[in-house]
Design goal:
The chain is α+β, with helices and mostly antiparallel strands. The chain has helices at residues 2-24, 28-56, 62-79, 82-114, 136-152, 157-170, 173-186, 191-204, 212-223, 228-240, 244-255, 263-284, and strands spanning 308-314, 327-334, 343-348, 354-358, 376-383, 395-398, 409-413, 415-416. The strands form two sheets. A five-stranded antiparallel sheet has the order 3-2-5-6-8, with helices on one face. A three-stranded mixed sheet has the order 4-1-7, with no helix packed on it.
Length: 418
């Protein structure tokens, strides 16, 4: 802070050094006026002496002398400006002093009003992670300010979109949906806004995409068939109504649009895997009838030692921070190798603690199986948005690397996803 102030004072002095001398020194115009006055006075004195000589020599009478002298006195009054010049100079000096005091005062006042004086405090010079986090009260205040601003401009698209997203982040899904409803009228046919509207509306109606949200999803896909969020929501809606084939169809489209190594691709691969496992289970293991002999169960991966079994539970410190209805994804992925899940299971927070079983029958691709890898990591993630895509703020827990076939595993959800 001391160095900053020294530099600031030095710069102010340097600036004043350019201004003050000009104001303080006598101007060229003043010097010229003084020179002209001296010349005029000399000439007029000579003319007055000549007039006195002419009167003494009788060249002019007394009346003529009086007239000529009066004329000379007028010229003295009109041609000599010494008083005017003297009256100007003190004003210039006063102005110089005033400016010299005003500039630093105004500069300091403007900095404290518009600048960041607190940043000069060494106590504020610390890494971002050590600075105070934005509190929920501050977020509420910012949202309230945005609401107030939009009252005078209710059709501000950018402001409305920011407000809708803020409501969604705060869990105010009904208000978010109402704001998106206004937005899609102002910007019709926008796939992103329609998908966000469907998402908020689905969350508002008990996390269900059935009905109006699914209609909005269809409109979004009509506007942009390649919209990733709309495709993800469409697959989720189909999955919820147990149309697993449709869910797989929509989610597979996403894999052609995103980076195969991205977190989105990995998450989508996981839910596709889960849906394919459900389709396979429905086809291979139909419910036996009373009159039919149970068909032999297909060889399971348990026989090959590839199954993973254990329990997922929620740490006590996390319970109050999560919604009992939130989705929990339980998965296994290779310790080294592809990052997409090799097997995945879907539950809800209210099901925890829950026992799980992951095996090759839940594999996404026939040529990539859980049993193909010597070490895997078992994890569980709570999706706060209900989406299969990992997002900051999700809660998760991971096991140490284990060999396929391990049992008695314990996964504790106790950390935030970054």
């Amino acid at each position: 802070m001391t160095l900053f102030m020294l530099v600031a004072v030095f710069m102010l002095i340097a600036a004043l050094m350019f201004v003050m001398p000009v104001l303080l020194r006598t101007s060229v115009r003043t010097i010229q006026a003084e020179a002209n006055n001296e010349v005029n006075l000399t000439v007029l004195r000579d003319q007055l002496r000549e007039l006195d000589v002419d009167l003494g020599n009788g060249l002019i009478d007394q009346a003529g002398y009086a007239v000529a002298r009066a004329e000379l006195e007028k010229r003295v009054a009109s041609d000599v400006h010494s008083e005017a010049v003297l009256s100007v100079e003190p004003n210039r000096k006063r102005s110089a002093v005033l400016i010299g005091l005003t500039i630093p005062a105004v500069a300091i006042a403007l900095y404290y009003l518009l600048g960041a004086p607190n940043s000069l405090d060494p106590a504020t010079d610390r890494p971002p992670e050590q600075s105070a986090a934005v509190t929920p009260q501050q977020i509420d205040s910012m949202v309230a300010a945005l609401e107030q601003k939009l009252k005078s401009n209710p059709d501000d698209v950018q402001g409305l979109e920011m407000l809708a997203r803020s409501y969604h982040t705060q869990g105010r899904f009904r208000e978010s949906a109402e704001t998106y409803a206004h937005l899609v009228k102002l910007v019709p046919g926008n796939a992103d806004l329609l998908a966000d509207y469907a998402d908020s509306l689905g969350m508002a109606q008990n996390k269900s995409l059935q009905g109006e949200p699914e209609k909005l999803i269809d409109l979004a896909l009509q506007a942009d068939p390649r919209n990733v969020k709309a495709l993800a929501l469409s697959g989720s809606a189909a999955f919820d109504r147990r149309d697993f084939v449709k869910a797989i169809e929509q989610w597979k489209k996403i894999l052609t649009l995103v980076d195969p190594q991205s977190e989105t691709a990995k998450s989508i691969a996981g839910v596709i895997n889960e849906a394919q496992g459900l389709v396979s289970g429905a086809t291979v293991n139909p419910q036996p009838t009373a009159s039919a002999e149970p068909s032999p169960a297909p060889a399971s991966s348990a026989a090959s030692g590839a199954a993973l079994e254990g329990q997922v539970r929620l740490d006590a410190s996390v319970v109050k921070n999560v919604d009992p209805e939130a989705t929990v994804f339980i998965f296994a992925r290779a310790e080294q190798g592809p990052r997409f899940p090799l097997a995945v299971l879907r539950k809800q927070v209210k099901d925890l603690p829950v026992r799980f079983r992951l095996d090759d029958s839940m594999g996404m691709m026939p040529n990539v199986k859980l049993s193909d890898f010597p070490k895997v990591v078992v994890g569980a993630r709570i999706s706060t948005s209900g989406s299969a895509t990992p997002a900051p703020g999700d809660w998760e827990g991971l096991s140490a690397p284990v060999a396929p076939g391990a049992t008695g595993l314990s996964v504790v959800i106790n950390a935030r996803h970054n």
